[in-house]
Amino acid sequence: MTEPTNRAPTDAAPQPGRPAVPGAVDHMSDAAWDPHQYAVFAGHRGRPFADLLARVDARDPRLVADLGCGPGDLTVGLTQRWPGARVIGVDSSLEMLTKARTLDVDGRVEWVEAAAEDWDPTESGGPIDVILTNATLQWVPSHLRLIPSWLESLAPGGTFAMQVPSNFDAPSHRLMREVAARHPRADDLRPVLDRAQAVARPETYASLLLDLTPDVDVWQTTYEHVLPAEDGEPHPVLEWVRGTGLRPVLGVLDDEERDAFVADYERELEAAYPRRPFGVLFPFTRTFAVARTSR
Q: Which residues are CB-neighbours of 13 under 8 A, at least 6 positions away?
């Protein structure tokens, strides 16, 4: 969950705890990554990581880096998969890294606070055998430029594995943009929601990686998540995006504006994702890519 450091204002996303635009209200609890909120759907969020990891066939890596490690639970799991490896967890969010360190009771992971653009793999103490990045690069508009340098940092036979959400045209995100567009502060909200162009098409990732190595696997999966939806409780899709894509919006608005925005957005979600006896169906498409360098 890294965030860009040098980019045009139209691509800007707030850094944890900082106003998203000049003059914006600094709602620390709204704009910052919240490990508790992010973990509400931990099982659903963790499944793509497991599916990505299933395609990584590294047997005994010496050095593994998780770029955008978030709250660290999945990163700590890497120490069990590869008990002999040094594991590095990199994230730009101090809140997430604080949570990660509490989970790492054996001190097996080296936690590094850095944005993806600033992380230098050559400073990791040796060639890296595996670089994983899970649900992070959508926050990094420059990642197509960075990927070649990450592959170059790999040891011979090393693996680069990534997963990004590819659902920015889904109702959950389209409606967020529509509600923002009719909001009195639409001009302030537009930059923090203008992220969809950061995620490329699967064929773009495939072409980029195939220019660097012949061993490439790219695919998409759409998960039909079933989210619990109790009467009287907030809509579950609202709770899902509150931990991710809605954070920048909440960081821009003041209390009254925030409540009005959420109420308007939740009404739209109720129509787009109706509650049923079993809960709410939430389709979610993700793009995966795994590339292995030559030995």
A: 3, 4, 20, 139, 192, 195, 248
